[in-house]
Amino acid sequence: ELKVEQNPLFLSMQEGKNYTIYCNYSTTSDRLYWYRQDPGKSLESLFVLLSNGAVKQEGRLMASLDTKARLSTLHITAAVHDLSATYFCAVDIIGSRLTFGEGTQLTVNP
Amino acid sequence: DTGVSQDPRHKITKRGQNVTFRCDPISEHNRLYWYRQTLGQGPEFLTYFQNEAQLEKSRLLSDRFSAERPKGSFSTLEIQRTEQGDSAMYLCASSLGERGEKLFFGSGTQLSVL
Fold this sequence. Notes:
heterodimer, A: mainly beta, six-stranded mixed beta sheet, 55% strand, globular, B: mainly beta, four-stranded antiparallel beta sheet, 0% helix
């Protein structure tokens, strides 16, 4: 059974600081997704990573994928309050369903 | 608004009652998914459709749950004889159906079973 683990589960950081969220998964896959969820809202797609070594950046967020290590990272650069949300990684191994991690609840403090 | 829409946004029901939720996907999307999310957890896959065909169902989907997608357009998810453990956010998502393509999620239906 595929397991997707994120750490940390809770992250409180100051504005302007950098940090990395880690996503480990237990079964070989070359397709990994990052989503953002604001409280009471639905999920917003951030990145789709489709191959080993893939790196994508959007604003202050950068995601990467290492399929050999079964690891993806979401790096936050110079955090701002607007980035406060819960971030989920999800893995696709079958081509029909995503298995999500528990989520990382990020709070950016002034 | 051309995103995925779900109705109702909130549903409160008594244990033992039946409930039905509706999802309207993005119009050109072939695939439609149902997920369930409880507080503090990531979404869990329930089932998905390719056009009108239901191609996969999770073990989470007991025989009290049924989903349909007539004519490959909107979908309904029905829960019969609701239990308190069914309380969750039910999320619908759609995609064009190409593997590796992102899913677009609706705002969800929050179900509370009293």
